[in-house]
Amino acid sequence: MRVSLGDREAFSLLYDATSSKLFGVCLRVLNNRAEAEDALQDVFVKVWNKADRYKAGGYSPMTWLITLARNTAIDRLRARKTGNVDIDDVHDLSDGSPTPEAEAIASSERKRLNDCFEELESDKSEAVRRAYLDGDSYKDLAARYDVPLNTMRTWLRRSLMTLKDCLSR
Amino acid sequence: MSQKEDHNDDAALAGEYVLHLLDGEELAVFEARLTMEPALRALVRDWDASLVALTDGIAPITPPAMVKDKLQAVLFPDAAKPKRSLWTWLAGGVAVAAIVVGAAFLTPSLIQDPVFEPSLTASVAAQDGTLVVAARFIAQTNALELTREAGAARPGRVLELWLIAEGSDAPVSLGVLPADTETRIELTQDIAQRLANGLLAISDEPLGGSPTGAPTGEVLAVGPVTNA
């Protein structure tokens, strides 16, 4: 990404090219326009400040941006739920070992994920979705599926391993 | 635990981390390990790359334009300063006038204080010549002598003179020009020292001058300050 050169014009182009997808993600997670706008602003401030680290992270550009947007929105959602203001990135994407991933690979990954989700029982894939897109905690999920918290965790970890096995096949 | 079980455990842990399901001490320990273990970071990256597909069905929605405006203001704060708006204006209309050779000599006999020669001069001129003000700076007295050679303020408006000093962020007002064609402005030492290599500009302002301390109306004329 040219943004890593600190190029202001490139930043503007990147914003124009990606902001609507990222705003869609923020809005989906937060379900509140004003908060989604604030989150989007946070995302691009982070993009500006971290663009140099993107290069080292081994992420494809859109994966990196969407993950950043989703993480920022989830952090905001959690802060809203708990009243905490600690929204500093729980989740840093930097990494020292670059393995550039082409968008073409990413899109085949998407099909694979959907196929693998289908191998999970529907309520189990739904739990993963709810954690990813709705920011549900183990506590939220345990209440939703009416199971003890430890059971919920065992359940979800098993689902993750099933997914992982399927994805690495 | 076998190596494979270790790996499986980490793979699940990385998935929980990506889903933001870890908290408290578990989260702290995991994040500390992340800084030291490339293999763990790779597991996180794999989950991120896989799970991002969950956003595929989310339709793009154009954010309001003010989000971008606010971002530009936050990330590029100099863009919000008056100098920027002045330059934007300049780009919009008036081009920097060519230096008028010998402008300083056009009206030498009218100068009140003939003892001193100007050290700096500028011809602050509209590109089409509808407004021309010759400026001469007398270093010995810190006086800027101005002669309006063409044009005048618009009805009910005034002309305000600005200095954009070399390397400066914002135009500094040197004052509103009176109706007289000849004017003499006493500059402070600070302003006088910043005149060299600066740019003089004249803007159209409401009576009494710009209410904001920065140019608010159209820039009518500009000219670089050069050595006499």
From TrEMBL, chain A:
This is RNA polymerase sigma-70 factor, ECF subfamily. It comes from the Bacteria. One of its GO terms (biological process) is DNA-templated transcription initiation. Keywords: Sigma factor, Transcription, Transcription regulation. Transmembrane segments: none annotated. The lineage of its organism: Bacteria, Pseudomonadati, Pseudomonadota, Alphaproteobacteria, Rhodobacterales. Belongs to the sigma-70 factor family. ECF subfamily. Residues 111-163 form the RNA polymerase sigma factor 70 region 4 type domain. GO terms for molecular function: DNA binding; sigma factor activity. Residues 14-81 form the RNA polymerase sigma-70 region domain. It comes from Thalassovita litoralis.
Automatic annotation (TrEMBL), chain B:
Pfam families: RskA_C. The chain crosses the membrane at residues 86-106. Signal peptide: none annotated. GO terms for biological process: regulation of translation. Keywords: Membrane, Transmembrane, Transmembrane helix. GO terms for cellular component: plasma membrane. Residues 91-219 form the Anti-sigma K factor RskA C-terminal domain. GO terms for molecular function: sigma factor antagonist activity. This is Anti-sigma-K factor RskA. It comes from Thalassovita litoralis.
